[in-house]
Write a structure and sequence with these properties.
The chain has 13 helices and 15 strands. By secondary structure, it is an alpha/beta fold. The protein has 2 domains: about 110 residues, ornithine cyclodeaminase, domain 1; about 180 residues, Rossmann fold (3-Layer(aba) Sandwich). A hairpin with a 5-residue loop joins strand 5 and strand 6. Helix 2 packs across helix 4 and helix 4 crosses helix 13.
Length: about 325
């Protein structure tokens, strides 16, 4: 079978959010999955090169991407690169996926999966308004994922760039959503039951606390030095809310929480919560406090990219050796 290179549009088409979220859940229950620590090589000028392998019993991937935060000022993507997908049995390269597209969609799908399992049940029955802080690639992906997967119909967009906020508002409206720009997210944070922070995470952007019934997906900061949420808010959430991290890699990557002095290693992971749910345990058991906001901290993991590769192979009818 010849290897195929997927364009950004083809990669996106093969990764519908609901199917991808389901594949991510299946992967978390797959005992054959192996994900070594990712290699992060600092680059001159402040950028980083990420090398992220992962494999299960049938498929192996290596993600190779660069991250340059200052690229937004150059009119270039902050994340660039590719994901190579291999057949484990034969070593054959099956396809090459667009790295930024996979990163955006699998990150949003992880947040969607977390929201499906962690958010209060009443929010699923009557999804309230959503606030997105950061109108870049991740902001757009999360808007699409929460609209498609949770039925969110109203969204406020906050961005340092009025043009970017307007563009995302217009995209939301093209999906049939009610959308508007927000000048100061901290002033209106208490009005939203869904919150996504997807800023460049080079400085604190959020200093107000979410409301008690909110679900927050914090995805912008994925290294120890990056930060979106103030230390005071993170410390308050650690005392009164429910904090969950995507994987144990967050123990040394969750910049917001680490800089606030939160004991990240003691927090449950998404897998912990899913296992508890599968065993029929109550929501308060895996999440601890349960009385305040749910704060889901996502830092990224090559396992999510492996799930994306599995989803692409399944939806495009490609098979691998048993």
């Amino acid at each position: 079978m010849p290897s195929e290179m997927f364009s950004p549009a083809q990669t996106a088409a093969a990764l519908p959010y609901l199917a991808l979220a389901r594949e991510i859940e299946l992967l978390l229950h797959d005992s054959t999955v192996q994900v070594p620590p990712r290699l992060v090589q600092a680059l001159h000028g402040g950028g980083s090169l990420f090398v992220m392998p992962a494999a299960d019993s049938r498929v192996a991937i290596t993600k190779l991407i660069s991250f340059v935060a200052s690229n937004s000022a150059r009119g270039l993507p902050t994340i660039q690169g590719d994901i190579v997908v291999f057949d484990v049995a034969t070593g054959q390269r099956l396809c090459l996926l667009d790295g930024p597209t996979v990163t955006a969609r699998r990150t949003a799908a992880v947040s969607l999966l977390a929201a499906q399992h962690l958010a209060p049940r009443r929010q699923h029955a009557d999804p309230g308004p959503m606030l997105i802080v950061g109108a870049g690639v991740q902001g757009r992906a999360h808007l699409e994922a929460f609209h498609a997967g949770l039925g969110v119909q109203e969204v406020g967009i906050a961005s340092r760039s009025p043009g970017s906020a307007l563009a995302l508002v217009q995209h939301a409206q093209s999906l049939g959503m009610r959308a508007f720009a927000v000048e100061d997210p901290n002033a209106v944070l208490a009005d939203f039951s869904w919150v996504v922070s997807a800023t460049p995470a080079q400085a604190v952007a959020l200093t107000a606390s979410p409301r008690a019934d909110a679900f927050v997906a914090a995805v912008g900061a994925f290294t120890p030095r990056m930060v979106e949420w103030s230390a005071e808010v993170c410390q308050t959430l650690a005392r009164t809310g429910s904090l969950v991290v995507d994987t144990r890699d967050a123990d040394y990557e969750a910049g917001d929480l680490l800089q606030a002095g939160v004991a990240v290693h003691a927090l449950p992971t998404l897998k912990d919560v899913l296992v508890q749910s599968h065993l029929g345990c109550q929501r308060s058991s895996p999440l601890g406090h349960g009385s305040g906001p749910v704060f889901f901290k996502s830092c990224g993991w090559a396992g999510w990219d492996l799930a994306a590769a599995r989803c692409v192979l399944a939806l495009t009818g490609r098979t691998v050796q048993a």
